[in-house]
Specification:
Radius of gyration: 21 Å
Order of helices and strands: HHHHHHHHHHHHHHHHHH
Oligomer: single chain
Shape: globular
Distance between the termini: 29 Å
Structural class: mainly alpha
Helix content: over 70%
């Protein structure tokens, strides 16, 4: 523990970024690849209608990931700050409270998701056969939600120690199992969207099991009892306040999905719905290296903040933001030069017209500038401030996305789903730059 902590507190931040980020980046790229492979399997083995149904259900199926992030980001932020401050009492109480929250939240979510599956998919714009396929996929993912929530929370706690390699191995193991079972269930057994959902559930079970084994055999750098369940109001309050921004980000992405998918469903075709689902997954895949650096940034900022190294906290943000853009850049270049290379993996025997390829490029155009948004969302909880990150997530969707996507596609066509997204992100990037500069000034005042 001392070696890891000293490295984060004193080594060159470029070296720290490299040591912590490369396993996290690899893990997140595998995760992004897995979401694309899901779409490839569904598109190739179940058809366009099934792909449209999964595209409708996909934003809803990410709610457990948001709930897991709520717990994982919150508990991880509390843990990192406690490590930096040598607060062993708080460290020893993290896991029991995380377990409690995971069980309670997963139980409530599973019951609600199963019961309201049909109206939820309808809200997303589902109708006819796409509605049927979407409900099948969503209900099965809901059954496995405990593994989605607990697995992600546990993995984020491991990352918060700075143990990125261990966390990456666990994630990679779960993803490989997911891919194997997706192929077996869809490619061999022809189970359609149900096969995609069950394959993901099995992968998440392995993901969760690996973190239990890690904590059980004493690999953690803090006192960890993986089977302990406890409810400490103070710890839970901290976890919720620091993790809520991550959940809000997921919920607001869902709001975005509702508005966009309804617009496409109302004014477009099944092809438009399937195409957007494919583009969105590719967009997310290209961003996955950024998500890896986000995970690595959290313990660096948190531990240095806990140790009152405020200048190092500021430098960490800048270096990781630049590093995220550099790592993502090759993926972005390929997508802009040859979009059909990505799209043809999902759509078989499909010739893409000029408008489709233009919409793809418009969606991808601002990607190199987006890391600053995601790094800021990680930065605030890591310095014990959850509210600004939550405000960012709410404002982006409710103030910008809902009105723009509710009106503009109806007036100017489906292509404005893609143009509108770009315009929104330009405004958000400018706003975030002003926010983070102000926060840096406050930290420098504290350091003086």
């Amino acid at each position: 523990m001392n070696k890891q902590k000293n490295m984060i507190l004193s080594e060159s931040l470029w070296k720290v970024m490299y040591k912590l980020s490369w396993p996290a980046v690899i893990a997140m790229v595998l995760y992004g690849l897995n979401t694309v492979l899901d779409a490839i399997f569904v598109g190739r083995f179940a058809g366009e209608t099934a792909l449209a149904g999964v595209s409708l259900a996909y934003p809803l199926s990410q709610i457990p990931m948001g709930l897991g992030s709520l717990i994982g980001v919150g508990a991880g932020s509390v843990l990192s700050i406690a490590i930096g401050a040598n607060d062993k009492k708080t460290q020893s109480r993290i896991l029991g409270n995380s377990n409690y929250l995971s069980i309670v939240i997963a139980l409530v979510y599973t019951l609600l998701a199963w019961y309201f599956a049909v109206p939820l998919i309808k809200i997303m714009g589902g109708k006819d056969e796409a509605l049927v396929e979407g409900v099948k996929y969503f209900r099965i993912t809901a059954i496995g939600s405990i593994f989605w929530i607990h697995g992600l929370a546990g993995n984020m706690i491991i990352r918060a120690e700075g143990k990125m390699k261990s966390a990456a191995v666990m994630m990679g193991l779960g993803l490989v199992v997911n891919i194997v079972f997706n192929y077996i269930f869809m490619g061999r057994l022809q189970m359609g969207v149900e096969g995609a959902a069950w394959g993901t559930n099995i992968g998440m079970f392995i993901y969760t099991l690996s973190s239990f084994i890690y904590f059980s055999i004493g690999k953690s750098t803090f006192e960890a009892k993986p089977f302990r369940i406890e409810k400490d109001s103070e710890i839970i309050k901290k976890i919720n306040s620091l993790g809520i921004s991550s959940l809000i980000m997921t919920v607001m992405t869902l709001v975005q999905g509702i508005v966009v998918l309804n617009a496409i469903s109302k004014y477009g075709t099944i092809y438009d719905l399937a195409f957007y689902g494919a583009v969105y997954r590719i967009f997310t895949f290209i961003l996955t290296p950024v998500f890896g650096l986000m995970r690595a940034l959290q313990p660096v900022v948190g531990i240095n903040f806990g140790a009152n190294n405020y200048e190092r906290v500021i430098s960490s943000f800048k270096i990781f933001a630049v590093g995220a853009t550099i790592v993502m850049f090759p993926f972005w270049i390929i997508s802009m030069i040859a979009p059909s290379v990505f799209l043809s993996l999902i759509f078989t025997n499909q010739n893409f017209d000029i408008n489709s390829l233009m919409n793809f490029r418009i969606m991808m155009g601002l990607l190199p500038a987006l890391p600053i948004i995601f790094m800021t969302m990680t930065f605030y909880p890591a310095i014990n401030k959850g509210r600004p990150a939550a405000l960012m997530g709410i404002t982006r969707q409710l103030v910008f996305y809902v009105p723009i996507m509710s009106i503009v596609p109806r007036l100017y066509g489906i292509q404005w789903v893609y143009y509108g997204s770009t315009v929104i992100d330009i405004f958000v990037i400018i706003w975030v730059i002003f926010m983070i500069k102000k926060e840096f000034s406050l930290l420098r005042i504290q350091a003086a």
